[in-house]
Amino acid sequence: MKLLNTYIDHTLLKPTATKNDIIKLCKEAKEYQFFSVCVNSCYVALAKSELKNSKVKVCSVIGFPLGAMSTRAKVEEAKSALDDGADEIDMVINVGLLKSKDFDAVWKDIEAVKKMMPNNILKVILETCYLEEVEIIKASELAIQSGADFIKTSTGFGIGGATIHDVKLMKSVANNEVKIKASGGIKNAKTALEYINIGVKRLGTSSGIAIVTNGKSSNSNY
Q1: Can you give the residue range of the structural domain that contains 47?
Q2: What mean pLDDT do residues 102-120 have?
Q3: Which of 123, 131, 147, 201 is buried deepest, with most CB atoms within 10 A?
């Protein structure tokens, strides 16, 4: 198995995050050789600058955390993040449209973002805490149909994060066509390994240092 640090998107998405906090996040990511840092789009350029000459990638969230903005807004935010140096994009699905059963609108929302970034990794956040089982299955199908590279459980800002049950549901749909990212509530090595052992390829967490050092986790939501 790969080393734990190589699964981790070292994450800081709190609205109160300062420039200094992002600089610290990047220093930690370099020290522990995490796969990436995951930041809000306004901090992509700063993160890219701080990670210059390192192997750590920059991931930006888009339409975060609600997913309820217009498709055009998501596309423009993604374009801006990529222009600023983002390597990967994590976009939030439109949960309300999914629950309205307007499936065409949901997949077109995702597809519009993927179309303008064909050579970059797109992870689609389903926000599973708000979804019934049948909706998790449908959302996974729509994301795959729309060209997603990963389907991701959670923003970490909803009423719940990743669960083994939900990941297994997503995996049953993904069928190795796309990868799975688990996020929300992953705060220690034991939990991280549980997800990796069922096939998760990436972990979104602000507790990456605790996970790789078996120390105490942070108090973050994510």
Answers
A1: 4-213
A2: 98
A3: 123
Domain count, the chain: 1
Question: Is 181 a known active-site residue?
Answer: yes
Q: Which of 48, 57, 138, 152 is catalytic?
A: 152
First to last CA, the chain: 24
Q: What does pTM read for this prediction?
A: 0.95
User: Is 90 a catalytic site residue?
Assistant: yes
Active site residue 152: yes
* Catalytic site residue from 84, 90, 109, 166: 90
**Which amino acid is it at 69?**
M
pLDDT at 219 over 60: no
Please choose, from the candidates 201, 140, 133, 207, the residue with its C-alpha nearest in 3D space to the C-alpha of residue 170: 140
Catalytic: which of 123, 171, 181, 187? 181
How confident is the model at residue 221, as a pLDDT?
A: 53
The domain that holds 72 is classified in CATH as 3.20.20.70
Please name the helix (run of DSSP H) or strand (run of DSSP E) that holds residue 80, with its range, or none.
helix 71-83
